[in-house]
Amino acid sequence: MDAKENLDTLMRRLGEAARAASGALAAAPTAAKNTALLALARAIRAEAAMLRAENERDLEAARAALLDAPLLDRLRLTAAVIAQMAEGCDQVAALPDPIGEMTHLRRRPSGITVGQMRVPLGVFGMVYESRPNVTIDAAALAIKSGNAAILRGGSEARHSNAALMSLVARALCEAGLPEGAVQGVPTTDRAAVGRLITMPRYVDVIIPRGGKGLIARIAAEATVPVIKHLDGNCHTYVDAEVDLDLAVRVTENAKTQKYSPCNATESLLVHGAQAAAFLPRIGAAFAAKGVEMRCDAAAKSLLAGVAGARLADATEADWAEEYLAPVISIKVVASLDEAISHINRYGSHHTDAILTTHHPSAMRFLREVDSASVMVNASTRFADGFEYGLGAEIGISTDKLHARGPVGLEGLTSMKWVVFGQGEVRGESAP
Q1: In whole angstroms, what is the distance from residue 364 CA to residue 274 CA?
Q2: Do 258 and 222 form a contact (C-beta atoms < 8 A)?
Q3: What is the rounded distance in angstroms from the CA atom of residue 190 to the CA atom of residue 175?
């Protein structure tokens, strides 16, 4: 059997196992699912040293391959990341089980009662890059939402992902759930992605999480519905009426707390009424941390006197750029209207924040900025399933259908109609 046939056989085997497991998982009691999640949390904590060692193998290979610093940062399993993975499993276990929940029940004139029940999607395939912690987020959410999952992580994290998948398999076994409920694709052959995204018989939805190239390819080639997670050109806008101390503190955190996540602020807009007071202060904070500032003419003029400031002229491309690095674009705007228009034109519809003490401006910003998460007086770094209380997230969808924003348990379910009767029949005159 040639390589093509071998790959086809592998992907079909994974698909068949996932489809079979999805039925069992959809019917599994909440207690069994929670047992698996708590077992997974314990295993992650117990095997932290092993996980760090396997992750170091990936990091060594990545450094030898000269991967960019943001990718190395995403790849690294620190003690804090490992602890957060375990805590995420505990949190998901503590969440109410959405499966089987019935809502909007109402009695109809005919006597029947009509409502909706929340059910799993079935099987989701996930293709992701760099971040091995996504393996645990995806596994935890799959288990609790009653979905089977086929996970294909990036080749740069293959040792980390294999180690994590071994813990998932152990937890499923301990809970008496089928091992096929969560499977990793055990090959680095990129053609496996092409098979996964064209298996509608076995896979109900694809969730890509990675760079623009990966997501563009999957969106173009998939024959399975896709929940897209595009780039994160997130904005922070400093309004005309604002607490300057708050604005400096929040903006600095939104940009510099960590550069590589998709919810880090990449573009800063400042109302002209506050530019002279605010920009030198935030400029000094950025200069102290080595952040390059790509500015329009007005911003550059106000930042010119900041000691150590790394300034450059912003190009048209900078307004739409996701840097994932210590670089930020800065523009002075004349009004809230201009800020909203700029964000809706250049943003990626991920996460945008307004810093203001003027309630009407805050409400306009919330209504009119067309993004998955819109914030008032908070760092864009909070746009995260863990921070939103979802326990974990499968990704942050910038789509409007089927899910938007951090995709947690409910984002991995759909609704079906349910009808209760007592022998009612439809009359002859009904259309």
Answers
A1: 19
A2: no
A3: 33
Per DSSP, helices labelled H in 76-157 are: 79-94, 133-145
- Between 48-64 and 30-46, two packed helices, what is the crossing angle to 10 degrees? 70
Number of C-beta neighbours around residue 63 at 10 A: 11
Query: 78 Cβ partners below 8 Å, 6+ apart?
Result: none
Residue 319 CA to residue 330 CA, distance in Å, equals 8
User: Who's near 345: CB < 8 A, 6+ residues apart?
Assistant: none
The pair of structure tokens assigned to 8 is 């086809």
What DSSP character marks residue 226? B
Hunting for tokens 């969106």 — which residue is that? 219
> Do 120 and 412 form a contact (C-beta atoms < 8 A)?
yes
Half-sphere exposure of 337 (CA within 13 A, CB side): 1
Helix (H, G, I), strand (E, B) or coil at 150: strand
The CB density around residue 320, as the number of other CB atoms within 10 Å, is 15
Yes or no: say if 39 and 175 are a contact pair by the CB < 8 Å rule: yes
Residues 251 and 244: beta-carbon distance below 8 Å: no
Name the DSSP letter for residue 262: T
Residue 405 CA from chain centroid, whole number: 7
Query: In this predicted structure, what is the pLDDT of residue 414?
Result: 94
DSSP H stretches of helix in 257-375: 272-288, 297-303, 336-346, 359-368
> Taking the C-alpha atoms of 279, 283, 284 and 290 in order, what is their torsion angle to the nearest 10 degrees?
170
Pairing of strands 182-184, 205-209: unpaired
H/E stretch holding 191: helix 191-196
**Do residues 396 and 405 make contact, with C-beta atoms less than 8 angstroms apart?**
yes
Phi, psi of 137 (to 5 degrees): -55, -50
Q: How confident is the model at residue 428 (pLDDT cuts 50, 70, 90)?
A: low
Dihedral sign, Cα of residue 165, residue 167, residue 171, residue 174: positive
Measured CA to CA in angstroms, residue 423 lies from 102, 111, 113, 420 at distances of 21, 9, 12, 9
Closest to 142 measured CA to CA, from 159, 126, 161: 126
CA distance 325 to 74: 12
Report the relative pairing of strands 413-420 and 113-120 from DSSP bridges.
antiparallel
Whether the bond between 104 and the residue before it is cis, its omega within 30 degrees of 0, is no
Q: What is the pLDDT of residues 348-380, one digit of tens each?
A: 999 999 999 999 999 999 999 999 999 999 999
Mean pLDDT of 84-103: 94
Helices (H) and strands (E) in the chain, counts: 14, 16
Q: Using CB atoms within 10 A of its CB, is residue 232 exposed (0-12), middle (13-18) or buried (19+)?
A: buried
